[in-house]
Fold this sequence. Notes:
The protein has helices spanning about 80-90, 110-120, 140-145, 170-185, 205-215, 215-235, 255-260, 270-275, 300-310, 350-355, 365-375; strands spanning about 5-15, 20-35, 35-40, 50-55, 60, 65-70, 95-100, 125-130, 130-135, 155, 185-190, 240-245, 265-270, 315, 395-405, 425-435, 435-440, 445, 455. The chain is an alpha/beta fold. The protein has 2 domains: about 5-55, Urease, subunit C, domain 1 (Roll), CATH 2.30.40; about 60-380, TIM Barrel (Alpha-Beta Barrel), CATH 3.20.20. The two termini are about 25 Å apart.
Amino acid sequence: MSHFALQSNKVILNTSHNNQVSHEMLAACIEVKDELIVAIHPYGQALDCEVLDYGDRVIMPGLVDSHVHINEPGRTEWEGFNTATQAAAAGGITALVDMPLNCIPVTTTKAAFEEKLNAVDDKLWVDCGFWGGVIPQNIGDLDELLNAGVLGVKSFLIDSGIEEFPNVEAKDIRAAMPILAKHDVPYLIHAEIDCGGFNDVVINDKYNSFLASRPKSWENEAISLMLDMARESKEKGDNCRVHIVHLSSDEGLESIATAKKEGLRFTAETCPHYLTIASENIPDGKTLFKCCPPIRENSNREHLWQAISDGRLDFIVSDHSPCTPELKHIDSGDIEKAWGGISALQFGLPLIWTEAKERGFTLVDLTRLMSSETAKFAGLDSIKGQISVGFHADFLVFDPEHSYTITNEMIKHRHNITPYAGRTVTGQVQHTFVRGHHVYQQDEFINAPVGRPLLKGRL
């Protein structure tokens, strides 16, 4: 259908009052033509096209997930664009941004990026942008990489676990920042620094032994370093955008709050696993829960929710980081050897909604935290992240009352493993539309992949 409309008693629309843009849930009818939203009418409006009526179910802007590891080309036995973007569609995600590792080659050069773009042909069920990487060896290539269309770049301050993606130090950050500021793209930082003193911790099948091996101080020190780097960049007149990915430590929130108060361009995200799981509840030997930085105590989790509420944390993304079951060492329970990463791409919205509604958050709040703010961060907010005339017709239809238990059989990503199997959640994504194409309906994928690459300067 190139011309149709969908309506509901509950549509989360972009509204403007006194020049303040916000979201509001209203009864409405959304008219779609040629992949774009062309008009928003009152509910029940008579139109000369088919109208899909979703009654009391909620029509939300498609989610934008700016932190996904897809691993193609090179490690497609871990994940690939076809299965990852199917899982995204099943989760109501209509646009995602792929990380520059753990693919082979890593996305640190224009040639590597072009190889990745060649790998996505006919595999994207949702639209997909791409982050590049900064490593010590590619500072001189950053201009070319950014001109090729990546939306920003990422670095590690600690061993990434991938030999081709070594960590950076202060001198590398200092050299990269003016280039990134010139292109006005965010600098994503995996904020852990190995401060020593914990390398003698013996990691066994006890989750707490792994937790002890990666203490909060590693995150805190890394965030403090980036605060200093951001200050220095501003003083030089660059004011580079700095972003802390997958924040786990509540002790790092103070530095983030300081950066925001000082007017630095400093943002931070967290993830469903840090907001929905507490280390006290992780069974020993369950390697599926291993990720870096680690899932921490319940009190830490509650502090992260407070930071979501007061704006110290800017948004919520999946950090979907899959691998093969063998690399997870599920049978042996060997946490030290297991690859770190949580697989849960399609379950983010129900996981967060289940916890958030108990804390007074609304679906309008989640639209901001999982769609409009992530679109803005990735530079996609001229086309994604809101239901407004002229924007892409990206929607999800959500039943906020439906409760169910997550099972391995539901999983759409490549390997049907997740630490959330057996967990009961509330809220079900029933339909997903990408640029007006109905791609997912009641656990089934429709037609063929319609997603396309989202390149900076060519949206």
